[in-house]
Design brief:
19 helices, elongated, Arc Repressor Mutant, subunit A, alpha+beta, two-stranded antiparallel sheet
Length: 508
């Protein structure tokens, strides 16, 4: 009779159920019984041996209900208990033996691995560098032998990558957790400063070992490169012999898969200790990350020293100030406290002189004349910038160049104005060829005139933006066409009668 496999969500239901602490105590007991090779447990044994929460032992009926629920979810397997039957009544009473099911064992294994991963303290393994170097030396000796020993090669490679995987994972986790260690500020100050000093010593020692060992490991990897394919093939063939046939993959496919796996791990090891092209090795990146963490730790220690030195906390100051305001007997006292607390006094303490007249020291701040303060003084608290004064640069040549360009542009603009401001009406089609300055001035005048036009056929008259010229624009028939040739191209559109003259303010 086939049995259905429990759903994954039901197997983990006991973790978030209402009586989760009771369920976890029972499952912990069954996991321990599995490790002790006990075949099954009875409800009374569970009640007596489980580590119940809060020192409150549940009743036997409650334990039986919890066991039944866990069996229903699939975490436990049950079978009738007939060994303690002494009467017919006992035979017909429901008695069960419970053991950890295969699914429940998988759940407990996963949860144990999860808890272990959370509680693991990552570390920088200097000893692993020595082990990696020793196993690489052993591989070099095996590769130089007259006859290759596949068993020893496989053992050395397996140990090598086990140690290397542990080194890489722990280094990554440790460097990721350094930032959290740097930001740790809630412990006792003396203990925290001692911890940071020990952490700095730890980082410096690992950096020294990494510098000393990385070069030697990289040299051995370079020497092993010609024979690496032979070593990896020997290990792959030895592993492929133990793979059970499944009727789908041939032996050649299995061998190719094993060889590709070994080659991938070997490439990762080589890139970890040797640089490829412009990219630095992972060991160099780890060394740089560890070195950058030391100044951060020193800065954190300096900040703790400053905190111990008596620097005030702004939030605490505001809380004390709020209590002082609450204790003021009247509004006048509160206003005096406000002015004193936030320095709402005259600006004479900044050595600034009122421009109009001298003000007596007894003048209230609200009645004193305003004093202009430079924006830098408001932002920085001082007019002089921080640091060394900047070097004075001679910009006389740049100023002369800018002045020459401005004079040239002004001359071109004046010439264009004199050409267009004739005071006589002229058709756009009769303007002839215009240079870029004349054409730019014409476009600006036409644009300003058209912006004030109410209908396309209405004439318009107005001053330009700077008030020097006045323009009158009269549209001609809708079928007329004007074409103006310029340095920038050909401009065409409906023909207009244009009159430009100097305005009265310019003429005066």
């Amino acid at each position: 009779m086939a049995t259905s496999t429990p759903r994954a969500d039901l197997l983990f239901r006991h973790v978030s159920a209402e009586r989760a602490d009771v369920y976890r105590a029972i499952m912990n007991l069954f996991a321990a019984a599995k490790r002790q090779f006990r075949l099954h447990l009875r409800p009374d044994e569970v009640r007596a041996e489980a580590d119940w929460p809060l020192d409150s032992m549940p009743t036997l009926e409650s334990v039986q209900q919890a066991l039944s629920q866990l069996a229903e979810w699939g975490n436990l397997a049950s079978q009738p208990d007939t060994t303690r039957v002494s009467s017919l009544e006992d035979f017909y009473r429901a008695r069960f033996l419970y053991r950890l099911s295969a699914e429940g064992e998988a759940v407990e294994t996963a949860m144990a691995a999860f808890v272990k991963a959370l509680a693991r303290r990552a570390e920088l393994q200097s000893v692993a560098l020595e082990d990696i170097l020793a196993r690489l030396e052993a591989l070099r000796e095996l590769a130089a032998a007259a006859e290759l020993d596949a068993a020893k090669v496989h053992e050395a490679l397996r140990d090598l990558f086990t140690v290397f995987s542990s080194l890489a994972e722990n280094a990554q986790a440790f460097m990721a957790g350094i930032s959290r260690s740097i930001e740790l500020q809630r412990s006792e100050v003396s203990a925290l400063m001692d911890y940071k000093r020990r952490l700095i010593d730890y980082l410096e020692r690992f950096i020294g070992d990494l510098v000393a060992r990385s070069g030697a490991i990289g040299g051995v990897l370079h020497a092993l490169e010609p024979s690496s394919e032979l070593l990896l093939s020997a290990a792959a063939r030895r592993e492929a012999r133990d793979v059970a046939p499944d009727g789908q993959d041939s032996g050649l496919d299995v061998l190719s898969e094993k060889l590709a796996s070994w080659q991938e791990r070997w490439t990762g090891l080589r890139l970890w200790f040797t640089s490829s092209g412009s990219e630095p090795s992972q060991a160099e990146l780890l060394r740089g990350r560890a070195r950058s963490a030391i100044p951060q730790l020193l800065s954190a220690i300096a900040a703790l020293h400053d905190r111990q030195g008596g620097r005030s906390d702004r939030s605490a100051d505001f809380r004390v100030l709020s209590n002082w305001f609450a204790e003021c007997p009247d509004d006048g006292s509160a206003h005096r406290l406000y002015r004193a607390a936030f320095s709402l006094s005259a600006a004479r303490h900044l050595a600034l002189v009122c421009p109009d007249r001298d003000v007596a020291a007894s003048t209230p701040w609200a009645r004193a004349p305003a004093v202009q303060i430079h924006p830098k003084l408001r932002e920085r608290g001082s007019l002089t910038p921080r640091g060394a004064p900047p070097k004075v640069r001679d910009r006389s040549q740049e100023r002369l160049l800018l002045s020459a360009r401005l004079r040239e542009e002004q001359a071109d603009l004046d010439a264009a104005r004199h050409k267009l401001a004739r005071g006589e009406p002229v058709l756009l089609s009769e303007l002839g060829h215009l240079d870029r300055h004349e054409f730019g001035l014409l476009l600006s005048l036409i644009g300003e005139a058209l912006s004030a036009q109410t209908t396309p056929d209405a004439p318009v008259e107005r001053d330009n933006g700077d008030g020097l010229l006045r323009i009158r624009l009269e549209p001609l028939g809708p079928h007329t066409y004007a074409c103006i040739e310029t340095e920038l191209g050909v401009f065409g559109g409906r023909d207009h009668r244009l009159t430009v003259w100097w305005s009265e303010s310019r003429a005066s």
